[in-house]
Structures are given as C-alpha cells and as structure tokens.
Write a structure and sequence with these properties.
It is an enzyme of class 6 (ligase). It is found in: Cytoplasm. Homodimer. The protein is of the alpha/beta class and 324 residues long. The longest helix is centred in the last third of the chain and has 22 residues. The strands form three sheets. Strands 1-4-3-2-7-8 form a six-stranded parallel β-sheet, with helices on both faces. It has a three-stranded antiparallel β-sheet with strand order 9-10-11, with helices on one face. α2 links the parallel β2 and β3. Helix content is 35%, strand content 18%. The protein is built from ten helices and eleven strands. The N and C termini lie far apart (46 Å).
Length: 324
Amino acid sequence: MEAAAAKRPEIISDKDQMRRWSRAMRSQGKTIALIPTMGYLHEGHLSLVREAHKHANLTVVSIYVNPGQFSPSEDLSTYPSDFEGDIHKLMSVPGGVDAVFHPHNLYDYRVDGKNEIGKSGGDEECKNQEGGKGGVVSCVEEKGMGHETWVRVERLEKGLCGKSRPVFFRGVATIVTKLFNIVEPDVAVFGKKDYQQWRIIQRMVRDLDFSIRIVGSDVMRDNDGLAMSSRNVHLSAEAREKALSINRSLLKAQSSAQEGHKSCTMLRDCVVQAITEAGGKVDYAEIVDQESLEAVEEIKNPVVFCVAAWFGKVRLIDNIEINA
C-alpha cells in the first residue's frame, strides 16, 4: 500500500507573516529547520529536506532567486524556475515540509507606501541589465534598489569561486543573513556540493553569534555520477557526457592520494588534463584545507579538491573530500 502524499505546505510570501509563523511555532516549543534554495528543485534539494527532518520538528524551505549574488552580466535571466513543480516535489518527500517561504523581492524597500525600485519589480529589472559601471556590482546595486548593507566573510570568500565571481559570496552571505533574521530557524541545512558556500555560512554564523546550527549534507549525484544541479538542465546530451570527466577525475585523484601520492600539483594536473581533453574549460581546480580553504602543496591533513569548469555555456562545480 502506497504511503499517503504529504499535505501541501503553507505558502508564505510576506516576510512579516513568515516571522510571525516561526515565532508562533517556537512558542509551542517546536524547533525549525530552514533549507535556503533558489528553486527548480531536484533530488539533491529533497535530500536536504530528509536531512532536516532529523534535526528539527518543522521544516521550512525558502525559494528565492537572489539577485544580490549575480553580477549584471551573469545568468540571472536564465535561471530555471518551476514553482508548482517544486511544491509537488516537496510533497513527495515523506513528511513533506511545513512551510515554503517564497518572497517576491527581499530588496524591495518601501517608503511612505511607495516602492523605491519602480513599478515593474526589482528582480525583473535586474534580469534586463547588462554590465555594471564603476567596478563589479550585483544586480541589486546596478538597479539602485536602496540596499546598501552587505555581509562579507572576507578571507573565505576570496578564493575558489570568489576569484571569478567577486560579488557572489557577499550576496549569498547577505541573503542568508536576511533569511535567518526572517525565519529565525534553529537549524539550517546546506549541501556540501557548494563547499565554499557551506564553510562561509558556518564561519558567518560563528562570527556573528547566530544561534543557528549549520548542517552540511553530502553531495547528491545522478546515477552517472554527475553532481546534481539546477543548471544541469541546460546541458546538451553531449555536454553532459563530457561533464562526467569532472567526477571521474576527482575520484581518481582521491584514489591516488589514498595510495600515497600526496603532491597536489600532480593530482591537480591530472584532473585539469582529463577535463580539458573532454572538452571542458577549467575555471579552477584546487586542493584546499577543509576548514580554512587555503591551498596546500602536499596533502598532510584533511583537504577538499574543488573544481569549477565550463561545458558549453554551463558552469559546473564539484568537489571531493580527501582525508588521507
């Protein structure tokens, strides 16, 4: 006999209503786990829901494509979306989720009842911007939405993805701070595929004394080994097959390290060669300390091998922990 489908979660779009919901639940002695997402959910996200069930009484999933982490030249306009599909996927998980926070625009500040960013809405206007002026900016700054306050985790955000996406982690840390202040969770669950992001949020929570426990959940992969990502939908069949070189080469590097090959230069060169020969363009391939994210030359302590590579117009990231 099939299990009954989970009930439809409460959909909340207003941040004050979200805060009232959370406080009402906590006044009843309930604990809350938050899973921040940008939507277009896949099995990787659903695994975070299952993980959240282990840590709290109630689960909240936020669905919000954050313009603050995109520069005006990046792919905000093409980021996939399927809100109703997302809700049905969440309902397919045993136990489901209790609430979905789906705000329209978390950078929309109103003064005297007037929207400071104009009638058409901030996210849509960000999507239409091309290029920034006066240095690297986010879509939010380019459009002048009145948002001036940013959260930075200064050292951890500089390397890896931070080199080619200089506003990305500032935008992530800021929106996660906003979500924490609105939802007020006890626990937040993040996928370790975005390894640098996970470590940045851990450090931010420690440094700013948030009373929130950050849980990292292992990378989820499709049957062929490709790390699950909302951007995978943009891969052609040919590009997807070529992209398998990322995980395959990382597994070989992990095996080599466990067999005693500790030179990071050698391991890195092997991975770069495998990806390049498959037709990928490597953004970075670095072996870094798991805590500090500082590059190492020889594996003596637990490290993580992080890779970002382009296949066609799709940028993919992946990583593998090496505890040899």
